[in-house]
Amino acid sequence: MTNSPRFSAHPVPKSEKKPVSDTRHGITRVDDYAWMRAENWQDVFRDPSTLEPEIRSHLEAENAYQSALMADTKPLQAKLFEEMKGRIKEDDSSVPSKDGPYAYGTSFKTGGQHPRFFRTPRDGGEQTMLLDGDLEAQDKAYFSLGSADHSPDHTKLIWGVDDKGSEYYTLKVRDLETMQDNAETVSDTSGSGVWNAQSDGFYYTRVDANHRPSRLFFHKLGTSESQDRLIHEEKDPGFFLGVGGSSLDDFIFIDIHDHETSEVWLIPANDASAEPKLVAERQPGVEYSLTEGGDVFYILTNADGAKDFKIMSVPVATPERANWKEVVAHKAGRLLLGHSAYKNHLVWLERENSLPRIVIRDRQTGEEHAIAFDEEAFSLGLSGSPEYDTEVIRFSYSSMTTPTQLYDYNMRTRERSLLKTQEVPSGHNPDDYVTRRLLAPAHDGETVPVSIVYHKNTKLDGSAPALLYGYGSYGHSIPASFNTNCLSLADRGFIYAIAHIRGGKDKGYDWYENGKRLNKLNTFKDFIAASEHLVAEGFTSHDRIIAQGGSAGGMLMGAIVNMAPQNFGGIIAEVPFVDVINTMLDDTLPLTPPEWTEWGNPITSATDYSYMASYSPYDNVTAQAYPPILAVAGLTDPRVTYWEPAKWVAKLRELKTDDNPVLFRINMDAGHAGASGRFSRLEEVAYTQAFALKLVGKVEA
Asked: Residue 660 belongs to what domain range?
């Protein structure tokens, strides 16, 4: 890759080298840029002004550099922003969901950045605004709402707020008669609470000094948080603790899990003094989750070798493992993704052959039927119902060309009612676009699904640019759903592609297992194979493929550009997890112990250390030519700390043998999710798209 004339010359930020050595398992590594990690990072998450001046100065220099190199795209960014904003119905509102005497929903106002929560009488009528996100966000550089949950008696609302981007949420309680918040607050939470049955208190998880939710408390209304009762504490730093409620408001579920093992405890929702009751003791590699079905629990689990999961039932009175009985059998290759139960029906979402469907079973007769669609690639979402005694559930459907459609579905009559179709105010004709599902041959005989969308007028002669997106970790699958933002690229001749690589669960649980830990290289090779298939099939050429991924997908970007830089014309790495070994060696960081099951533990295992060292993007930067690279990060990000991309960028500039630019843009007022507010986020998308368009010579607004 040679110097690109698309970027003008500007002084590159200088990164001082201060070598720090570390020896593990007989191997010594030298990190020249370890100084970029603030020793007081925990303080910085709470108060960004405490960042050391030397580090702040360096980050500000990086922002000045990227701003200068992207200055000529400002008109294009503005145009892209207006296009994407024009596809959003600014005063959009959800279809309210019925719960007791009311129906609850969310809405936005024209020009508003944040959601508003409202309710109406159950069968329609005047809206009552319960919480206005825009009002609460006034005069704040960053504002993120956690959940907003009404009490069982419908008189109060718990809501959470984070004003730093560091995901330390404060919970507040609002009186829905006066619409005023109580004086009492609860700090350092995960962002949500679960009401008890009496509506006079709630359960919540508190985040510890290392930003891990490890303790469950009960807060009694009218008392200070210092009096909150500790209900349960998880001592193992490798596990997260969460809390949820049942649809009948009978039980509080305490969920303890890492990425492959889970454990559930129960508390009666009407007795905050009760001691939690264990359902089944954790066993490595065994996952299970509960939903209430009257006098039984339905349990989704991979126990007994059910790799793609099965559903069991157990009496509520005796939920121990010995009493579990099979209800939906395991079927290899059919992955059960989630389940819910209602008075007369059991419902689950499954995926087979990379496509989802919803299955409904009559609990009395055992008769089953499915909701499915015929497009080549599509996405289904199952939202169910907040009520237990109902025959109507709600689901959503979309494809890469079809806007989201929201349906109510009668499980008894099998009638579906279209409630809402996503409105694209600036206009959208699905017939103007083509969506396809390709199968790319991988290095070991597997085939990698690739979902693509492009404008019908795009020439498929290899000249079209392509944006290839990937993730491939934690079993997370990227759905082939409608994305209004990618239309700006498609309208400019881009092919937008999603590589459903190993590490996700697109082709079942095996697809996940074969892309984690000691199989992680498959993830990167699959993505490279997807790029090669797009070229082989005549869709694009390698120098016109821009690869994009975020978080663990940012690690993917770092790995593939080390392994096959010649395959890509540019890289967009958002909040990229690129300093894998150093992060996994640092057990004080928020996510490190829980992540060992995903990546391996390089502290205790020489095998894990060596394998990780073979792909860790920061450790594998070499003296070779790299395409232009853009890294994006947030200063207060507790998931992927800012110093990972900062160090990676410095090392790339030090070692690469070409003159292509490496840009680093850091939001000094935000964390992992980027800017808060729906329009502020669009400005960031416009920036990354402008970078991609600049690389293929499409800078004109």
From this structure: 20-85+427-695
CATH number of the domain within which 60 lies: 3.40.50.1820
Shared-domain flag, residues 554 and 455: yes
* pLDDT value of position 677: 78
Asked if pLDDT for residue 160 goes beyond 70, the answer is yes
Amino acid identity, position 312: M
Q: How far is CA 207 from CA 116, 191, 245, 302, 445, in A?
A: 26, 10, 20, 29, 44
pLDDT greater than 80 at residue 99:
yes
**Cα–Cα distance for residue pair 362/350, rounded to 1 Å:** 17
Q: Give the model's confidence band at 88: pLDDT under 50 very low, under 70 low, under 90 confident, else very high.
A: very high
Where is 79: in which H helix or E strand?
A: helix 74-86
Distance CA(505)–CA(514), nearest Å, equals 10
The pair of three-digit structure tokens given for residue 181, joined into one six-digit string: 């918040």
Q: Do both 79 and 94 map to the same domain?
A: no
Same domain, yes or no: 442 and 525: yes
Give the residue from 284, 309, 335 where a domain finishes.
284
Q: Whole-angstrom Cα distance, residue 238 to residue 217?
A: 20
> Which of 226, 253, 284 is a domain's end point?
284
Contact at 8 Å (CB) between 419 and 95?
yes
Please report where in the chains the tokens 């008669």 appear, as a residue: 177
How crowded is the C-beta side of 128, counted as CA atoms within 13 Å? 14
Q: Are residues 444 and 578 in the same domain?
A: yes
* Domain contains 625: yes
Query: What confidence tier does 348 reach under pLDDT thresholds 50, 70, 90?
Result: very high
Distance of CA 193 to the CA centre of its chain: 20
Cα 276 to Cα 254: distance, rounded to the nearest angstrom: 8
In contact, 48 and 164? CB cutoff 8 Å: yes
Rounded to the nearest 5 degrees, what angle is found at the Cα of 341, between the Cα atoms of 286 and 189?
A: 65
Enumerate residues 6+ apart whose C-beta is below 8 A from 445. Answer: none
As a whole number, the mean pLDDT across the chain is 94
DSSP 26: T
What does the pLDDT read at residue 5? 45
Token look-up 């970029």 returns: 36
Catalytic residues: 551, 637, 672
HSE at residue 204, side-chain half, CA atoms within 13 A, is: 32
